[in-house]
Write a structure and sequence with these properties.
The protein is an alpha+beta fold. It contains 4 helices and 11 strands, in the order αββββββββββαβαα.
């Protein structure tokens, strides 16, 4: 088989993805997340939201089916309304529990998230070549597979069938790889992954 630098990097960094929870929200809301030491990814299952990432001038609008990956340690806010006063994520999420959190009344917006653990000794091999934000829109060519994976993630979260923890981890890993593939396919220059 020919050399596959993309797989080699993922193996070297020992990239392991897990679903870390999600948010169901209604009405006007905002949640502020601190800077993180892991790669984070999120998908908008239903509705819309805004992402405001520290160090980025303009917020990013996310629609149902959009997926985004945050690769650098920056604080960020997810919100239905950019003028809403944010609640600290630590006040909503228990880091020991991977559960959906309800904010407000209703389910105008549903998002699910995960994180990627990397071997600290080799993490920079991957994180140095990634931009702070990768946004894959639902209407893009690369979104078809991501939408299927997102549907499967939601199904596994809601049905709690035997083996669901393992299935969720595998789906999260596939989601991460396909986000990176989408980035490689659309990036003008990708020095270490092409």
């Amino acid at each position: 088989m020919p050399s596959d630098p993309f797989s080699d990097i993922l193996k070297l960094t020992n990239a392991q993805s897990v679903v870390s929870g999600g948010l169901t929200a209604g009405g006007r809301w905002a949640v502020r997340f601190p800077a993180f030491d892991k790669i984070k990814f999120f998908a908008v299952v239903k509705g819309q939201l805004w992402l405001s990432l520290d160090g980025r001038k303009k917020p990013v609008y996310m629609d149902a089916g959009d997926v985004f990956l945050l690769a650098s340690p920056r604080a960020f806010t997810l919100a239905s309304d950019l003028k809403a006063t944010p609640i600290a994520a630590a006040d909503l999420f228990d880091p020991k529990v991977t559960a959906m959190v309800q904010l407000g009344k209703g389910d105008d917006c549903v998002q699910i998230g995960g994180q990627v653990k990397l071997d600290p000794a080799n993490a920079e091999v991957l994180t140095k070549v990634l931009p702070p934000l990768i946004h894959v829109t639902a209407g893009s060519l690369q979104a078809t597979v991501l939408q299927w994976l997102l549907d499967q993630l939601v199904r596994e979260r809601t049905t709690e069938l035997p083996g669901s923890e393992l299935v969720l981890a595998q789906l999260a890993q596939l989601m991460f790889v396909h986000i990176l593939r989408a980035y490689v396919a659309t990036a003008a220059v990708s020095p270490c992954m092409t």
